């Protein structure tokens, strides 16, 4: 369990061009041979074991408490939660901790699901409602953590970033997304852009904190500069603790690479062909979550929350079927 992750940093077989947010180009110009050598960059695990310690500590705490109370019951009720803490994550992203009604309350979320947040400015006719994926453990008591990126013209994200401690925000939910049960798939691949990491992290946490769940996880996290890797510590912790089952590939736009953590470039067909489980090769699933342009290039867009739409883009070109892909 404390074995160390020792991956060599191999150059990736794709053109390392700078790209903008919208540049999830779908076309790889020539057909590369499928390489068996999975190429990942990762760091050597120094703090392996921290995750295990955390897991046991949480379990013991839990045993001392009685059954939890549920905050968000899926009954359509809005619940006001008080902002208790704010931590800076990157230049434009913060982690917000909301207090649940008591120390004995849990959020009520199951994996994978989201909450809805609602805000109405005094001048607004209608409230703005947006979904967010909490990053705390589902059985954490007393709080709910959101990691939210601020958009300059973003109605809800801008409000959230302007909130002061002790102000409240209305929440309801949960909104079920993809119900996870242990070992539902043998291998899952998660392709995320920006804050699209949050539902992926929810899945990963649920898998790795359950000793019965043996699912292998490959993460491709793109469209970021190195300093913008959200949930970096949390992801490193998983990489170090589960080097056999968790592999992460970080792609950055055009930032100069100072560390071994990230690789320059973009998510291309050629790259995905090397790191994803082969189409039709078993009980595998590919999850996609990111900005609209990313869905378009990689998986095709969703028609609606209840209609996944057809698989398009790179994943279609690579031969994945509808049942092998889930768009968050
Ligand atoms: C299931 C689900 C879970 C989500 N979880 C999270 C989460 O954990 N953390 C988080 O920060 N966000 C998350 N989001 C996105 C979130 O719901 C909002 O879309 C986001 O906060 C922007 O809302 P807004 O009201 O601030 O911006 P809006 O008023 O909706 O948009 C304002 C401007 O921002 C731009 N913009 C908005 N969203 C994006 C985007 N994703 N990429 C590029 N440009 C964009 C728009 O083009 C527009 O110009 C999630 C979305 C879904 C569907
Ligand atoms: C928030 O509320 C608590 C309890 O009411 C109070 O002790 C604390 O000083 C408040 N914090 C701020 C920043 O207003
Ligand atoms: C979703 C997301 O994080 N998009 C970012 C991708 O990278 C560009 C350039 O660094 C940012 O401007 C986007 O906001």
List the helices and strands and how they pair.
Layout: H1 50-64, E1 69-70, E2 79-90, E3 93-99, E4 105-106, E5 113-119, E6 128-132, E7 143-149, H2 155-162, E8 168-176, E9 187-193, H3 197-208, E10 216-224, H4 232-241, E11 246-252, E12 262-264, H5 269-275, E13 284-289, H6 292-298, H7 313-317, E14 325-327
Parallel strand pairs: 1-4, 9-10, 9-13, 10-11, 11-12, 13-14
Antiparallel strand pairs: 2-3, 2-8, 3-7, 5-6, 5-8
Bound molecules: flavin-adenine dinucleotide and 2-acetamido-2-deoxy-beta-D-glucopyranose (NAG) (2 copies).
- The CATH superfamily name of the largest domain is Nucleotide-binding domain of ferredoxin-NADP reductase (FNR) module
Oligomer: single chain
What is the H-and-E element order? HEEEEEEEHEEHEHEEHEHHE
How many E strands?
14
What is the fold-level CATH name, i.e. the topology of the largest domain?
Rossmann fold
User: What would you call the structural class?
Assistant: alpha/beta
**Largest sheet at a glance?**
6 strands, antiparallel
What hetero molecules are bound to the protein chains? Answer: flavin-adenine dinucleotide, 2-acetamido-2-deoxy-beta-D-glucopyranose
Span between termini: 31 Å
Kindly report the average pLDDT value: 82
Report strand %: 25-35%
Global shape = globular
Structural description of this entry:
One of its GO terms (molecular function) is cytochrome-b5 reductase activity, acting on NADH. It comes from Tuber borchii (White truffle). It is found in: Mitochondrion outer membrane. It is an enzyme of class 1 (oxidoreductase). InterPro entries: CBR-like (IPR001834), Cbr1-like_FAD-bd_dom (IPR008333), FAD-bd_FR_type (IPR017927), FNR_nucleotide-bd (IPR039261), OxRdtase_FAD/NAD-bd (IPR001433), Riboflavin_synthase-like_b-brl (IPR017938). The N terminus is likely disordered. β2 and β3 form a beta hairpin. This protein has three domains: 160 residues, Rossmann fold (3-Layer(aba) Sandwich); 35 residues; 108 residues, Translation factors (Elongation Factor Tu (Ef-tu), domain 3). It has seven helices and 14 strands. By secondary structure, it is of the alpha/beta class. 20% of the residues lie in helices and 26% in strands. It has a six-stranded antiparallel sheet, covered by helices on one side. A six-stranded parallel sheet has the order 12-11-10-9-13-14, with helices on both faces. Strands 1-4 form a two-stranded parallel sheet. It binds flavin-adenine dinucleotide and 2-acetamido-2-deoxy-beta-D-glucopyranose (2 copies). One 2-acetamido-2-deoxy-beta-D-glucopyranose binds next to loops.
């Amino acid at each position: 369990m404390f074995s160390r992750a020792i991956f060599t940093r191999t150059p990736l077989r794709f053109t390392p061009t700078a790209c903008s947010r919208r540049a999830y180009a779908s076309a790889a110009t020539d057909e590369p041979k499928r390489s068996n050598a999975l190429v990942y960059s990762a760091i050597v695990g120094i703090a392996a074991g921290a995750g295990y310690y955390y897991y046991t500590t949480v379990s013991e705490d839990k045993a001392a408490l009685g059954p939890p109370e549920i905050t968000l019951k899926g009954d359509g009720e809005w619940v006001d939660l008080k902002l208790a803490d704010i931590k800076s994550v990157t230049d434009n992203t913060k982690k917000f901790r909301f207090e649940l009604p008591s120390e004995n309350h849990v959020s009520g979320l199951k994996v994978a699901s989201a909450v809805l947040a609602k805000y109405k400015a005094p001048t607004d006719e209608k409230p703005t409602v947006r979904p967010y994926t909490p990053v705390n453990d589902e059985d954490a008591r007393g709080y709910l953590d959101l990691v939210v990126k601020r958009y300059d013209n973003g109605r809800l994200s801008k409000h959230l970033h302007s909130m002061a401690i002790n102000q409240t925000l209305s929440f309801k939910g949960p909104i079920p997304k993809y119900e996870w049960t242990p070992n539902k798939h043998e291998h899952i691949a998660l392709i995320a852009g920006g804050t699209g990491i949050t539902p992926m992290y929810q899945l990963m946490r649920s898998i790795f904190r359950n000793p019965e769940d043996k699912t292998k996880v490959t993460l491709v996290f793109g469209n970021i500069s190195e300093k913008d890797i959200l949930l970096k510590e949390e992801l490193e912790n998983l990489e170090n603790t589960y080097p056999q089952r968790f592999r992460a590939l970080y792609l950055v736009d055009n930032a100069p690479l100072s560390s071994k953590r990230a690789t320059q470039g973009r998510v291309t067909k050629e790259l995905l062909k090397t790191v994803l489980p082969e189409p039709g090769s078993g009980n595998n699933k590919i999850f996609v979550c990111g900005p609209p342009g990313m869905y378009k290039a990689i998986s095709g867009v969703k028609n609606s929350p209840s209609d996944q739409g057809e698989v398009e883009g790179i994943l279609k070109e690579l031969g994945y079927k509808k049942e092998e892909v889930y768009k968050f």
